[in-house]
Design goal:
alpha+beta; 2 domains; 5 helices; elongated
Length: 150
């Protein structure tokens, strides 16, 4: 084992999703940014610092970060990202929910109360289908009735 702080840090390879506390998002982001800059600088002399390219990289990093914790459909990943779920939020909700319900079609619903409101992840055979954050009890009950959560 090398204890020198200048030696490269090796990441673990595990089977299945990477737990949120093992995911090094900052290191991954920096590695991806360097690769994009290197590739872009070799192509036609165009800089890697344009807004569209940066946005695509940012979206891909967010998607990779989410999918390192849980399998998702495309729609599920979009909803997790746009509603501001962090890998820690997802892990807490999936692995330590307060309530687990099932829809009539077999889809599972994970519910966790956070600061008096409710976070919800709906997961089917292909991963997270959708998610909701900071629901009040009345909205949660309405969803439960509408989608027949049992």
């Amino acid at each position: 084992m090398n204890s020198c702080p200048y030696h490269p840090k090796h990441q673990l390879a595990i089977d299945g999703p990477v737990p949120y506390n093992m995911y090094d998002g900052i290191n991954l982001r920096d590695q991806l940014m360097m690769k994009v800059e290197n590739v872009s600088s070799k192509r036609k002399g165009t800089p890697a610092h344009n807004a569209a390219q940066y946005q695509k990289i940012k979206e891909q990093i967010a998607l990779d970060e989410i999918q390192s914790v849980v399998n998702t459909t495309k729609h599920g990943a979009e909803r997790l990202i746009e509603r501001g779920f962090t890998p820690k939020d997802i892990s807490d909700l999936k692995f330590r929910p307060d309530i687990i319900k099932t829809q009539s079609d077999g889809v599972q619903v994970f519910i966790k109360q956070v600061n008096g409101k409710y976070n919800v992840i709906v997961e089917g055979d292909y991963g997270v289908i959708t998610s909701l954050k900071k629901l009040v009890k009345k909205s949660l009950n309405r969803l439960s009735d509408n989608y027949d959560w049992r």
